[in-house]
Amino acid sequence: MDKKLKVAVLYENWGWEEEQPDPEPEKKKRGTKKKRRKREKHDREEIYEALEKLGHEPSYVVLDGEDKTLNALARCEADIFFNLVESYSGDDTKEMQVAGYLDLLRRLYTGAGPQGLYIAQDKGLAKKIFQFHGIRSPYFAMCYQGMLEHSHDIKFPLIVKPASEDGSLGIDKDSVVDSVKGLMERIHYVQEEFECPALIEEYIEGREIYAAVLGNQRPEVLPLIELDLSKLPAGMPKVAGMEVKWDKDSEAYKVTKSAPVEDLDEETTKKLSRTALAAYQILKLRDYGRIDMRLTDKGEIYVIEANPNPWLSSESEFFMAAKKSGRSYAEMVEEILDHVRNDRRRRDRLRIGYAE
C-alpha cells in the first residue's frame, strides 16, 4: 500500500482496565485485558507500533459505553478503523452493533461486518448453516429456561457451553459431562452465569487444529496451528477451556502450547484447509478470521466454531500462522489493511474512494 493512511485503532474499555494506552506505545505498562493472558503489550499496542513502522498515522479511539465516545467516533477523521472491539458497555452481543454503527457512518473498518459477527457469535445458528452446506460439526442441542430450542439425537459424553460467548468463557474442566445429573447442573450454571442458552454438543475426541484465513476475493488459508492438549493432567478433558487459555498459574496452562502442525500428510492438510475456507466464506467473514476444528484419529474433520476478528497479538495463533507463512507482524497488519482498501464492493457500498 503506497498511500499513507490515518488509521484509528478502535477498542473498548468499560472499566475492566485500570489504565488507557499512553500516546506513545513504547511507554506502556504491563496490563491485562478481558479474556486475554497477561503479557507485556496488548495487541492494539503492537498494531499501533506496526502502523507507525509502516509509515501510517495511527491513533487510538476508545469506546467506554458512553454516548460521548460514540460521538467522538463519529467525528474521527481516520481513513480506516482497525476494529478490535469485542463488546460494548460490557455486552458481548453488541459487538456487531459497533460494526453496524461504523456502517451507518459510512466508514471503512477491518474485519467482519455485522452479519458475519452475528452469525459467528450465535453458535447454534452457525452450526445449522454448516449442516446445510455439508460441513461436519458436532451434533448438538440448544436449551434455555426449560425450553429445548433445537436438538439432534445426541449422546454422552457432552460438552456444555454458552451459546453466544467467545474466548472460552464458560468452558472449563467441568464442561464435559457424562451423566444426566452433570448435564442438568452444567446447563443451570451456563444459564445462571451468562443469561444465555446452553449449547450442548457431542464431545469430539481429537486434535485441536486452528486455521487462520486471510483475505476476501481469494482468501488464503495460512499454515495450520495445533493446540497440543496431550499433556493435560490425568482425568482432565482435552478442551481449550479457561484453565488452558487464561489461567497462567494453572498446570493446564503450563503444559499446553500452540505450534505449527508438522506431522500431517498433504491430503489431510488440504482437507482441513478446504473445510476452514468453506466455513469462513459461508459465515461471511472477511479480511481475516480463524476456524477451530477437531481432527479425529479416523481422519474426520469437525468444525467447532468460527472466530471473526481473532486476537492479533504477536503471541496469537493467528500471527503464529502468518509468521510460518513468511510474513512479519507489520506485513500481516499491512495486508489486512490492503484487504479493506481493495474491497471494491465495500467501497462502492459506502461510496468511498482513494486517490491512487
| Rough outline | globular
Question: What class, by secondary structure content?
Answer: alpha+beta
β-strand number: 15
CATH structural fold name of the largest domain: D-amino Acid Aminotransferase, Chain A, domain 1
Counting DSSP H or I runs of 4 or more residues, the number of helices is 12
% residues in beta strands: 15-25%
Order of helices and strands: EHEHEHEHHEEEEHEEEEHHEHEEHHH
CATH hierarchy: architecture of the largest domain: 2-Layer Sandwich
**Which CATH class of the largest domain is shown?**
Alpha Beta
**Biggest pleated sheet:** 6 strands, antiparallel
Question: What is the number of domains?
Answer: 3
Mean pLDDT: 89
Output the radius of gyration.
20 Å
Low-confidence stretches: 18-39
Helix content: 25-40%
- What is the end-to-end distance? 10 Å
Assigned CATH superfamily of the largest domain:
ATP-grasp fold, B domain
Structure description:
With 356 residues, this protein is an alpha+beta fold. It is 33% helix and 21% strand. It contains 12 helices and 15 strands. It is globular and about 55 Å long.
What's the short version?
This protein is of the alpha+beta class and 356 residues long. Helices cover 33% and strands 21% of the residues.
